[in-house]
Specification:
This protein is an all-alpha fold and 98 residues long. The protein has a domain at 22-87: Winged helix-like DNA-binding domain superfamily/Winged helix DNA-binding domain (Arc Repressor Mutant, subunit A). It has helices spanning 24-40, 42-53, 58-65, 69-87. The relative contact order is 0.17.
């Protein structure tokens, strides 16, 4: 599959469920939360890096990490929920690692 993503929409910083980053402080908060996620679940953090920042499709990111697309989707769902809880000021939310 090429870089066109096979019809999948690309992700941008302004499109992902509440992770919009219009100010430098937002980017710093996202970076800090991503570092905490990396300590908790390194693979999920890598998924975020490849999908959110790298713009890879699900298939491309799964191949880069060496996991199935289904596993990547689970990691992505967990990472998004965890990051959103961190960015919304609820770091103690019960989001379980995979």
């Amino acid at each position: 599959m090429g870089r066109d993503g096979g019809g999948e929409a690309r992700l941008s910083l302004t499109q992902v469920d509440g992770l919009a980053a219009n100010r430098e402080e937002d980017l710093v908060e996202i970076d800090e939360a991503l570092r905490r996620l990396e300590e908790l679940d390194p693979r999920s953090a890598r998924v975020v890096e490849l999908r959110f920042f790298g713009g890879l499709t699900e298939q491309e990111a799964a191949e880069a990490i060496g996991i199935s697309v289904a596993t990547l989707k689970r990691d992505w769902d967990f990472a998004r929920a965890w990051l959103l809880s961190q960015l919304r000021g609820n770091p103690d939310a019960q989001v379980e690692a995979q």
